Amino acid sequence: EEHGLKLFGARAVESMRLEKGDLHWKADILTEFDPFETGLKRFVKVDKGDFIGREAAAASLAAGPERRLCLLDVDVDGADALGDEPIWHDGEVVGWVTSGGYAHWSEGSCAIGYLPVALTGTDSPSTGFEVEVLGVRRAATRLDEPLFDPSGSRMRS
């Protein structure tokens, strides 16, 4: 009380983060993946000068990512993906969920996870995905934009 600390609704913050497709350090953003796989390319300027990891970053950029972090809308019934669930496509495991949960504004379940690049482009299929939640495969749709305010206009109003 002396410092004015109060409860702020961590679950609400998590729900809003997922609906916006915002990433979580140590869940979605891990040291095992480079910024080009996580969608953070805009923060890495390999031609800006020397920095620790520049050569590795330039090599990763030149090679192109093998996978990308994507947002999924998951059709669940009573249980949400939380992280580490397999993502299936056409009967084959192709990726895994890094974080997920119930999205209160859109009243559905969503997940963030890594998929092979071939399944992530705007010309790639958005259907045919499944996320295995508690041992049951649930239909999922890969989204090209966040569920909530994809243009960011509400945040700028």
Q: Terminal Cα separation, in Å?
A: 33 Å
Q: Give the tally of β-strands.
A: 6
Average pLDDT confidence is 93
- Class from secondary-structure proportions: alpha+beta
Q: Work out the helix count.
A: 3
Structural Rg: 17 Å
Order of helices and strands: HHEEEEEEH
Strand ordering within the main sheet: 1-4-3-2-5-6
What's the overall geometry?
globular
Helix proportion range: 10-25%
Please mark out the parts with pLDDT under 50 across 5 or more consecutive residues, or reply none.
none
Largest sheet: 6 strands, antiparallel, barrel
Classify the beta-strand content into a percent band.
Answer: 25-35%
Description:
The protein has 157 residues and is α+β, with helices and mostly antiparallel strands. It has three helices and six strands, in the order ααββββββα. β2 and β3 form a beta hairpin. The longest helix is centred in the first third of the chain and has 11 residues, at 10-20.
